[in-house]
Specification:
It is a single chain. The protein contains 6 helices and 11 strands. The chain has about 240 residues and is of the alpha+beta class. The chain has 3 domains: about 10-80, no CATH class; about 80-130; about 140-230, Nucleotidyltransferase, domain 5 (2-Layer Sandwich), CATH 3.30.420. The strands form 3 sheets. A 5-stranded mixed β-sheet has the order 9-8-7-10-11. Strands 2, 3, 4 and 5 form a 4-stranded antiparallel β-sheet that branches. The two termini are about 50 Å apart. The model has no long low-confidence stretch (mean pLDDT about 85).
């Protein structure tokens, strides 16, 4: 498998001017609040310091800072360093190993910071995924299924919801077990978002209950039906042969 990676770049001289007041007043006009700027330390592979500038909203008169592209005002980490830590974790390194690698590269972060970066990236990815699903509009039928994966030697349950026609992922979350409560939390969010009419799943009773609670039709997946029939037929053949 080949992975194409595009990391954010730090551009110390490129600033994006705000289009709306970050304090929520609706203001769209700003003035410079000082012209010299203020030095800001940055943790990055190639940049150690940038300058941030203050802007004042002409509507609410509150001041705020803008930073160059690739740098966030609320943290010393560059976007590139954050993305690199997430990439290393996705490639299989532990949080401690991510911290060790970045320390060797001259950009040390703690394993707690690496964990926070991964959680932030996951939240952003889920938000983007939900926004993409919303743009596609209504989906008539959704499919739901649960599976288990091993994490640090322990089994972790995952519930998946997809568009039955296209296979697009509509929802995914970690669950404790395949019961009605855990399944409902994941499936209901996807069903309501895409206004689905049909829930397709295996023959687990919990899915039928969830479909009834959501007011949608329930259909058992054809593959699961075939598998169950084949297993039943094989069992009958074995009994008759004995």
């Amino acid at each position: 498998m080949r992975i194409s990676v595009q990391l954010p770049q730090v551009k110390p001289d490129v600033y994006t001017e705000p289009t709306e007041c970050p304090y929520g007043c609706g203001g769209r006009h700003f003035k410079a609040h000082g012209i010299k700027g203020e030095a800001k330390a940055v943790r990055d592979m190639s940049c150690t310091e940038v300058r941030s500038y203050r802007r004042e909203c002409l509507k609410c008169h509150q001041a705020f800072r803008i930073c160059p592209e690739g740098v966030s005002k609320g943290t010393q980490q560059s976007q590139r360093l954050k993305a690199t830590s997430v990439l290393l974790y996705v490639l299989g390194l532990s949080y401690g190993a991510v911290a060790d690698v970045l320390s060797a590269l001259g950009t040390p972060i703690s394993k707690t910071t690496a964990y926070a970066n991964v959680q932030e990236a996951g939240a952003e990815a889920r938000a983007q995924q939900r926004a993409e699903v919303a743009r596609e509009g209504k989906r008539t039928a959704v499919g739901a299924d649960g599976t288990y994966v091993r994490v640090n030697g322990a089994q972790v349950g995952i519930e998946l919801v997809v568009d039955d026609a296209s296979g697009d992922l509509l929802g995914m979350d970690v669950i404790v077990r395949e019961n009605e409560e855990d399944i409902f939390a994941v499936v209901s969010a996807a069903v309501e978002q895409v206004d689905a009419d049909i829930l397709i799943s295996d023959d687990l009773d919990a899915y039928k209950t969830v479909a009834d609670e959501l007011g949608v039709d329930h259909q058992v997946c054809r593959n699961h039906v075939k598998r169950n029939v084949d297993e039943l037929a094989d069992g009958c053949v074995r009994k008759s042969s004995t």
